[in-house]
Amino acid sequence: MPACLPTLIESWFAARGWRARRHQIDMLAAAKRGEHALLVAPTGAGKTLAGFLPTLADLIDHPTDRLHTLYVSPLKALAVDVRRNLLTPIEEMGLPISVETRTGDTPSDRKARQRVRPPQILLTTPESLSLLLSYPDAALLFSDLRTVIVDEVHAFATQKRGDLLNLSMARLQAINPALRRVALSATVADVDAYRAWLAPDGDIDTVTPVLGEAGAAPNVAILIPEGRVPWSGHSGKYAAKQVMAEIEARQTTLVFCNTRGLAELIFQELWSVNDANLPIAIHHGSLSIEARRKVESAMAAGKLRALVATASLDLGVDWGNVDCVIQMGAPKGSSRLLQRIGRANHRLDMASEAILIPGNRFEYLEARAALDAVEAGERDADDFRPGSLDVLAQHVMGLACAGPFRAEELLEEVRSATPYSGLSAEAFDHVLHFIEGGGYALRAYDRFKRLTQDTDGRWRVSHPRFIQQHRLNAGIIVDQPALAVRFANGRKLGTVEEGFAAQLRPGDSFFFSGMALEVVRMDTSDLTVRATSKQARIPSWGGTRMAMSTRLADRVRHFLAEPGEWHRFPADVREWLEMQKLRSALPRPGQLLIETFPHEGRHYLVCYSFEGWNAHQSLGMLLTRRMESQGLMPLGFVSNDYALAVYGVKPVTDPHSLFSADILDHEFVDWVEQSSLLKRAFRDVAVISGLIERQHPGKRKTGRQVTFSTDLIYDVLRKYQPDHLLLKAAWADARARMTDVGRLGDLIDRAATTMLHVTLDRVSPLAVPVLILIGREHVAQTAAEDALLMEAEALVAEAMRAD
Prior knowledge:
Structural class: alpha/beta
Shape: globular
């Protein structure tokens, strides 16, 4: 056992028959040198212990009753789990170290006590840390803080929560310049980019990279029931019986789905074929916290044979009895797949078992690409971008709540946070004056005048009520307007979004929390339900669909262009690609294939760009607008992650004119400004920046009230101050988050030089998966489903004819 471990920790390792791993010792060594550190190690490698070992060692050698270490997690549940796991070694070693959590669920009396008598180790979230910094005693509380540990850093560093955390770390560093920063992750592609994000002032050389030992290679298979891969679909529900057989053959299985709606669907499909009546459950972010905790406890106790889950369980699950992970539908990224595979076994020296269920033939190629990427150790690239100004406005207001500040000093501190290193003095001034009075167009309203500049140049909060307002409303996650789903006795099951609830009437039924529920009544905040045996529908949630990562898309394009790879594919997938090569063309990497052909009285244009559903939805709107202006009489479009099909009355003979670069300057701007995209983005940034409050003392605004307020302000600013800070922030959000405009721009750029246009006399094999989607969006009746199935079979027969 290396000598740098304190004797007490050495003895604890020995008593368990363990040895300290190399990366754990490296983390101790970095701490002794006073260096920041980024640890990248596979799941099951003891990352959490590696992060805390320097803290335990220091507290053994230098006991203190002050706050020593902050652990920041993206999830409340993760902080709770880490506390439980951290307490075990502390108790077994008999260390006088207190560990507590502080999240939105922590009782107010404990929160107040923690500021006066903090534990030595505090586990929290970015939002709770930001709120702690808004108190006048924050400088005293954090004055002796030695270490900040950021867990699962890949999950939020590139997002607004990462912006908020980085700003908070800049403030902590200003309070205690000797503070050490540590970040932990299992799935980081660009280690240097994360080192720069973690470092004060972005100084990458101050962050020591620590790479963990490689674990046993995972055992991953692609399940193809009865040897056939479906032409269409994305759920994998066709494999329900085979998935149930895998569950029956194993101790505990995690079944991952990419969306909450899909999780509800797959749970129902599995339950319908659960002939052995095995205990299975469902877990996703819209279920009530009580329901999630109950399921988590049952899983931890080994009482469940399977759990159907979404990304709500991507992080922090360390249930040792999970012996298989099943991914329904394509994983969309190698990093996400690796993260999910790591939920099985949770041991470095034992191969994790995983099974992928592709939803269609393109998804088979994607699943194969993901397996190859995992085997090659390739991770998905992360898109770091400049920090958001609405987040900066919230942070500045929070610091003002703690006490007056000078603008030039705060600007220097803010620039030390890497996402804001390029912030101009002019942009920072705009943020200050926005908080001061809401901006030029809103300056007449007292409720927006949150900051005042004193005669000595310092900024302070205008009135104590704004401090209370900030603490009630601070946070980066903006929930979509939602209604609580409750039984008549008041028991809450979870939430559904207002948009879905608006489609329901008393007597309607839907699946939720694994049950069929009938609507009894509805008011502005609650949807009252009762259990039913009636036929039910699956709820829809509005969240952005996950797009296939660019690196997986590149691998799929490579498969299409390399027939030498096809021997690895099932016979029907090979036949599909061979017929496409015979009848049309297969795009080379970097090439944009466009096919045009007639079918049943319509003319089709199919674009194979592999840029994801979000980008294709945006492109479909833009192309139909441009086709309209060219007199081509478009009728509609459908898309999946791989292709976009636009159809109309007249044929497209010159696709180049549709894909010209100015489409993003003209049609895109017009479309976004006329759609609800920009208003939705504005609502989010208005809430995050503190312009609109979600809660008043004693009550919370409904989603409709928030939307009404933000829509009014949006219209005023569009008319009187179109260059307002929040309108710019909303545009940035709309472009980046809601429309995948970056990938859309890449697609348009590629079209200019690499377009391959093939004119056909009928539908091609490659077009079948996307064309089958036409007419399927709102199908509910079995007869209609049967008719569509017959249509699909006819379409396949036409496409796969060799003549």
